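re: the backbone from monday

yeah here it is again, tokenized this time
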């Protein structure tokens, strides 16, 4: 538990730097591009992250899961790199299809299509989950935090350059693309200094040969990761498709500020997963303690959003974005719920029940997408935020029910222990 808190501390340090700098580059982008221009920017970034999220395998989990054995992480790393290469190939095809058809369903000008495709490809080439997994396997969270700090720094510098030399959507997308490449290089360099990367071990066969459940785990975590992306990036795209670029831009700002807690939830999840893999017998108790801590933090953050959210929106993004205050508050509540559920979801995945975690998250997400247009016709961007809130609440309740069910099954299957011999009453 002490190491877990220390690792979360390192991750939160990185998140803190990212949060501060994100306010800077978000302010630069929104105030330079305006509501509509920032909407186009938000759609391009969301499309790139959607493609990467769908194609990307959660290879850091594979490195942690199969690299912790006595033979070391060489085979697990080789398997992860092979999957990353597969992700780039498949993702490029997906990006081509989505960008080619973009104008049929997204408010995206034709002159931005090639820029959009280029950003998607750069995002795919900058996939960095494998080196992240190597660092987490060795509990090198301080080293990982230092490498990840490169992204917000480069993004902020790029945004400043865009303001002065290319104050357009293209300028800011180039800044975001440069930050993706920079953080990928930093993480690979950090991982390579700690662990030798043996390219001769790249293979899609070795790990599945030694672990019969490998492909099932790969597909389950990939789908779960895709759902996490769908919960934010695809939602931005759908909001833009239904309401236009201004709604997409407003929803992204409200989401980035209000759902900072989701980023915190992912931070907790990333820190706790390696510990749960190693803890085994103590995993449930560890997850319970983290959920309790998360509940307190979530309530405090929601209260903060209620009191200072409108001021924060208008200070950072401008008065035009103040209209999205209530959407931000609703998304903050959804983020608080996700924060509580982060350790529960990690517990399911670490116990080899990634498929269950996927189903529990997929069903409410599908319902939210199905009801999105009706929700937006009812309350605009607030309706979209309510759809996300409902999805998060149902998913976290589902994680809790699934864990209770698994515990009951384990109790039934365990053989009855013989009664301890009675002790006499003599002191």
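seq for it, each position gets an aa:
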């Amino acid at each position: 538990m002490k190491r877990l808190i220390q690792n979360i501390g390192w991750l939160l340090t990185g998140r803190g730097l990212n949060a501060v700098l994100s306010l800077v580059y978000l302010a630069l982008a929104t105030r330079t591009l305006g509501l509509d221009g920032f909407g186009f920017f938000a759609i391009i970034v969301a499309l790139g992250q959607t493609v990467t999220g769908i194609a990307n395998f959660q290879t850091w989990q594979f490195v942690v899961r199969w690299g912790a054995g006595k033979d070391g992480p060489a085979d697990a790393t080789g398997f992860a790199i092979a999957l990353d290469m597969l992700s780039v190939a498949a993702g490029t095809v997906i990006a081509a299809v989505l960008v080619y058809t973009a104008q049929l369903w997204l408010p995206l000008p034709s002159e931005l299509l090639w820029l959009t495709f280029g950003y998607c490809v750069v995002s795919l080439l900058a996939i960095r989950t494998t080196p992240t997994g190597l660092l987490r396997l060795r509990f090198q969270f301080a080293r990982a935090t230092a490498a990840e700090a490169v992204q917000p720094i480069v993004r902020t510098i790029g945004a400043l350059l865009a303001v002065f030399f290319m104050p357009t959507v293209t300028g800011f997308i180039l800044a975001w693309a440069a930050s993706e490449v920079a953080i990928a290089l930093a993480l690979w360099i950090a991982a390579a200094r700690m662990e030798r990367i043996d390219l001769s071990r790249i293979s899609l066969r070795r790990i599945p040969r030694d672990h019969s459940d490998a492909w099932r785990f790969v597909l389950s975590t990939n789908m779960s990761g895709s759902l996490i992306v769908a919960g934010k990036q695809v939602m931005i795209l759908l909001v833009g498709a239904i309401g236009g670029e201004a709604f997409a831009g407003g929803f992204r700002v409200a989401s980035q500020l209000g759902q900072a807690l989701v980023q915190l939830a992912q931070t907790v999840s990333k820190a706790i997963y390696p510990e749960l893999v190693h803890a085994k017998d103590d995993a449930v108790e560890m997850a319970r303690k983290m959920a309790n801590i998360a509940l307190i933090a979530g309530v405090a953050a929601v209260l903060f959003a209620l009191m200072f959210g409108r001021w924060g929106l208008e200070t950072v993004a401008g008065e035009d974005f103040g209209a999205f205050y209530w959407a931000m508050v609703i998304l903050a509540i959804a983020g608080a719920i996700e924060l509580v559920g982060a350790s529960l979801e990690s517990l399911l995945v670490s116990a080899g029940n990634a498929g269950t975690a996927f189903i529990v998250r997929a069903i409410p997400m599908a319902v939210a997408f199905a009801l999105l247009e009706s929700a937006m016709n009812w309350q605009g961007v607030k309706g979209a935020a309510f759809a996300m809130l409902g999805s998060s609440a149902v998913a976290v309740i589902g994680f809790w029910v699934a864990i209770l069910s698994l515990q009951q099954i384990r109790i039934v299957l365990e053989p009855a222990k013989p009664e301890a011999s009675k002790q006499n009453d003599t002191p």
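Confidence is low (pLDDT under 50) at residues 416-427. Residues 187 and 297 are 29 Å apart (CA to CA).
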